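Hi F.,

I've been meaning to write this up properly since the lab meeting, where we talked about keeping a consistent format for the predictions we share between groups. The idea is simple: the sequence comes first, exactly as it goes in, then the structure tokens exactly as they come out, then a line or two of notes. No screenshots and no reformatting. I'm using this chain as the first example so we have something concrete to point to.
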Amino acid sequence: MLTPRFSFWFPDGQWRGRHEGEAGRQAIAAWARFHADNGNRVEGLRRGVTVMGDRVLYEYDSRGASASTAGYLNWETIIVRVAGERISALHEYWGNVPPVG
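Output, unedited:
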């Protein structure tokens, strides 16, 4: 699903920063595994979707949806970049850093 040279940008916590190439693939895999293993869930109300060439920008008002994320409250912008039939980037930005509860 991901291109070999994947770009993952995250605004906070253990995965904060810009992770490119193989390091990006490893960072997003670790991020996803951590949240799956801990039952962390967030639900969002989608406020908008904008397509800009090979990028899709999603805007959400989000809140925690599990016991471990109960205090999470944020507005988020997530940009996904597509290359052919694969995802080449996921860049996430938050209105509140850190998220508030």
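Notes:
The CA atoms of residues 2 and 72 lie 28 Å apart.
DSSP finds one helix and six strands in the chain.

If this format works for you, I'll send the rest the same way.

G.
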